[in-house]
Specification:
six-stranded mixed sheet; D-Maltodextrin-Binding Protein, domain 2; 614 residues; alpha+beta; Dipeptide-binding Protein, domain 1; Dipeptide-binding Protein, domain 3
Length: 614
């Protein structure tokens, strides 16, 4: 918890400086109070909302969403949006051409060139960090779920086995095949033809344009010269693997950023958990109204609310349970919006080595074995033990929609009639009695449930599950643990948390982005649930997921997605599907120009807002 007096003092000093110019405190600065600081500022590593919230305003993409649409686009760094009509999509939708805008400058004064664009995509694909976002481009362009799979299929070399901990080759005989791999496959796939950027896909992939659109940090454009000077990949074929799957802190772009976007990065203060951005007065497009933006992690609700009331913050993150506290606050405006996002509790069928969260590591009442959730009866028992109706109606004030599976409401394959677990303590007890051949019921267990600190919706869910499960058997113990967002993400990537609640905001508005993420053996989430799950998915789910994404008939696609979800329900495969939250956007009524977009990371469109009395 931050010291409220200190925070207010800091903002008082800022406010005093602006009071001589306007009644609105500090009219050229926008202060957004969040519950999470970035995990990284490297666009090819970043795969979380807090990181994307910064990156989207510092860098630019080739195209952007057209207003609130999820399917239409406008040019951004590209001069035109490819289509069949303008003949910038060709060869049966496997070739996409983006004419590049000229005269654009990076924040350091370097001019944008086609080489920068090609470098950006090559660098991201070759980096492909574990649990990162680059799988989307690798799948869309090449048809593989990871660079590791792609390289192995073409060369027989496993990158994860061919490199030592410093990313150096353990055998020189691998060097030439890896050089050839880059030159034969990566280099030809994204090229510059004059000022045209040309993508060659291995087969048609419908959501490709959405993957490139603004708000997608993985598709932003870097300054090649600056990136190389910082220590990033040099763009040469020889040695590209030395930059593959780096630890986030080892990336030269971890806490630095030089883009073409409407704001430039001034500081990421890790101690204060605060990011400061400054308007880019050389921005090629419409310049922001505000000159300074501050994104500040303040975990404690009371502090965020006090700063908003005092005028020291312009907008704050508001959990659902505090909705009624802000609706009648003088001088405050409240909006509601539905991100394309779902929350779920995920179970690891096998926890990764080195986890500090297994207690004794045995089913002896003082811990759990690493494969605790590989037992179907354990997974079903947890599903029956959550009082969904009470959670939605009372604890969360009906500001969430319960989802029966992994799909958001209205997506192809979603149905109100999809089978779902209902709260039933008797069935929960029966499943626990059958789990682990009765040993679980006899010995008991101690299990930890995790959430990210500041997300009270997820904390409340964990605590309700804790209370219900502990009431079933006095030998059952459930610990609820909150972690700071970067620490939470590290534990997730290392496969250390047995069970945790996390959200998935759509990368692109297609059911494949959810079904594959949760239920394919190589999915962004599910690939990290342990080999027992991956084996299960390869046998039961992968062929259906892969068939569905290639299917062009919507009715057949829908039936395939329903089949996948039915299997997931019967086996309680991924954990607990929870809800699609309705977000509360709370700001001072002097905020003008605020708009909502369901695919935007974060809660504010910094490049369009300004402050003015109503």
């Amino acid at each position: 918890m931050k010291n409220l007096a200190l925070i207010v003092l800091v903002f008082f000093l800022i406010t005093v400086a602006g009071v001589a110019f306007a009644e609105i405190p500090n009219p050229d600065t926008y202060v957004m109070l969040t519950i999470a600081e970035p995990d990284t500022l490297d666009p090819h590593q970043a795969y979380d909302v807090a990181s994307g919230e910064v990156i989207q305003f510092v860098y630019d993409n080739l195209i952007a969403y057209d207003g609130q649409s999820l399917t239409d686009f406008v040019p951004w760094l590209a001069m035109e949006v490819p289509s069949l009509e303008n003949e910038l999509i060709m060869n049966e939708a496997t070739t996409y051409i983006f004419p590049l805008r000229e005269g654009v400058k990076f924040h350091n004064g370097n001019e944008l060139t086609p080489e920068d664009v090609v470098y950006s995509f090559h660098r991201g694909i070759l980096a492909d960090p574990a649990a990162g976002p680059m799988w989307m481009l690798i799948e869309a362009i090449f048809g593989y779920y990871s660079l590791e799979d792609f390289v192995f299929d073409k060369t027989g070399i496993s990158l994860n086995e061919a490199l030592d901990p410093e990313s150096q080759l353990i055998n020189e005989e691998y060097r030439q095949p890896l050089i050839d791999f880059y030159q034969d496959y990566i280099q030809p796939a994204i090229q510059a033809d004059g000022w045209d950027i040309v993508f060659h896909l291995s087969r048609p992939f419908g959501p490709f344009m959405s993957i490139l659109a603004r708000n997608s940090s993985w598709a932003v454009i870097l300054d090649k010269d600056t990136s190389v000077e910082m220590g990033c990949w040099d763009g040469e074929a020889d040695g590209w693997w030395e930059h593959y799957n780096l630890r986030k802190e080892d990336s030269p772009l971890y806490d630095q950023a030089v883009g073409t976007g409407p704001f430039r990065l001034i500081e990421w203060d890790r101690v204060q958990q605060r990011v400061t951005l400054e308007r880019n007065d050389d921005f090629w497009g419409e310049k922001p109204w505000i000159s300074t933006a501050i994104l500040w992690e303040i975990e404690e609700w009371g502090t965020r609310r006090a700063m908003l009331e005092a005028g020291d913050a312009d907008q704050i993150h508001t959990p659902q349970q505090y909705y009624e506290q802000v609706t009648d606050m003088p001088g405050i405006s409240v909006e509601l919006g539905d991100f394309v996002l779902v929350d779920s509790m995920q179970f690891l069928w096998e926890v990764g080595p080195g986890s500090p969260y297994l207690g004794s590591g045995q089913l002896d009442g003082n811990g759990i074995p690493p494969d605790f959730f590989s037992d179907i009866h354990v997974r079903r028992a947890f599903n029956y033990a959550l009082d969904y109706d009470t959670l939605v109606e009372h604890a969360l004030g009906n500001l969430v929609t319960r989802i029966p599976s992994v799909l958001p409401v209205g997506f192809l394959g979603w149905s109100e009639d999809q089978p779902r677990y209902e709260f039933d303590m008797e069935k929960a007890a029966e499943e626990f009695q059958m789990a682990w051949d009765g040993e679980l019921w006899e010995n008991g267990f101690t299990v930890s449930l995790f959430y990210n600190i500041g997300n009270e919706r997820r904390q409340t869910t964990c605590e309700m599950l804790q209370e219900n499960i502990e009431s079933i058997n006095p030998k059952f113990r459930v610990e609820v643990i909150g972690l700071q967002w970067p620490t939470f993400l590290d534990a997730y990537r290392n496969e250390h948390m047995p069970a945790f609640i996390i959200g998935w905001q759509a990368d692109y508005a297609d059911p494949h982005n959810f079904i594959s993420t949760y239920l394919h053996s190589a999915g962004t989430f599910s690939a990290h649930w342990g080999e027992p799950f991956r084996e299960f998915a390869r046998e039961n789910l992968d062929h259906l997921v892969e068939q569905a994404v290639m299917e062009t008939d919507p009715s057949i696609r829908e039936s395939l997605y329903r089949e996948v979800q039915d299997i997931a329900y019967e086996t309680a495969a991924f954990g607990l599907p929870l809800f699609q939250p309705r977000y509360i956007f709370t700001m001072r009524d002097w905020v003008q120009g605020w708009t909502f977009h369901s695919m935007r990371p974060g809660e504010v469109n910094l490049d369009q807002v300004w402050k003015e009395e109503n």
